[in-house]
Design a protein that fits this description.
With 227 residues, the chain is of the alpha+beta class. Helices cover 29% and strands 29% of the residues. It contains five helices and nine strands, in the order αβββαβαββαββαβ. Strands 3, 4, 5, 6, 7, 8 and 9 form a seven-stranded antiparallel β-sheet that branches. It has a two-stranded antiparallel sheet with strand order 1-2. β1 (36-39) and β2 form a beta hairpin. It starts with a helix and ends with a strand.
């Protein structure tokens, strides 16, 4: 037995080291934030993750009062924050950028998003992105501090609008939804990612392009004032 003693002494430390490395790898891999989209075939940096805000969305079938009641029960959010519930014509969801009770790192945000999406009132929850630009599309200021995010939609350009085999196959593979074909630019199609898809709309927009089957794929980037 004596000749095995050094190994027996070292074994618990080796085991602990393996466990620690595994836990660290798991923690590191639990950050799902994607900081780029594709533009003309190259990665286009979107910006640094915001640690203080999240965007949630609820189906328009829910009233503002129902949404407010839900938010008031959710411990992740700053209950003193004066938020706005945004609606858009012909868009299925109401979007609400919310301030967190305390700053969170990416792993924590990923976990919070996963937890929020277990609730039936939440159609999706998305990361928000830091930005120095707090102007609308016609260069009007809309607040003192803004965050960027993205909706549930993304836009895919096919090579041949008369043959949608590849598009339909990837939609089925990713559990996304075909919404419509652009009336004026026939090669462009609007796709929706849901919380049951293989990833959120930004991840799916990138994935569609990465298949090599499509000419372009663009997420629907949004901007909201938060202060």
């Amino acid at each position: 037995m004596k000749k095995h003693l050094p190994f027996l002494i070292l074994f618990p430390f080796l085991l602990a080291s393996c466990i620690d490395d595994g836990e660290n790898d798991k923690l590191q891999s639990s950050c799902d934030y994607i900081d780029f989209k594709y533009d003309n075939g190259a990665e286009d940096y979107l910006g640094e993750l915001s640690n203080d805000y999240l965007l949630i969305a609820c189906d328009t079938t829910y009233t503002d009062n129902e949404i407010q009641d839900y938010i008031s029960t959710e411990s992740y959010f700053d209950q003193n924050y004066d938020y706005t519930i945004y609606t858009q014509a012909n868009y299925k969801y109401k979007e609400i950028p919310l301030k967190l009770k305390s700053s969170k790192n990416c792993e924590e945000l990923t976990s919070i998003i996963s937890d929020l999406q277990q609730n039936s009132i939440i159609s999706y929850a998305h990361y928000t992105i830091q930005t120095d630009n707090c102007e609308n599309l016609i260069w009007e200021p809309i607040g003192d501090l803004c965050v960027n995010s993205y909706s549930s939609l993304f836009y895919v350009k096919v090579s041949d609008e008369t043959d949608l085999t590849d598009l339909n196959n990837v939609i089925t593979e990713t559990n996304t939804e075909l919404i419509e074909q652009n009336e004026f630019m026939k090669k462009w199609f609007t796709i929706r990612a849901t919380k049951n898809s293989n990833g959120d709309a930004l991840k799916m927009a990138n994935y569609f392009y990465e298949t090599g089957l499509f000419e372009s794929s663009e997420p629907d980037i949004t901007k909201y004032p938060v202060e």
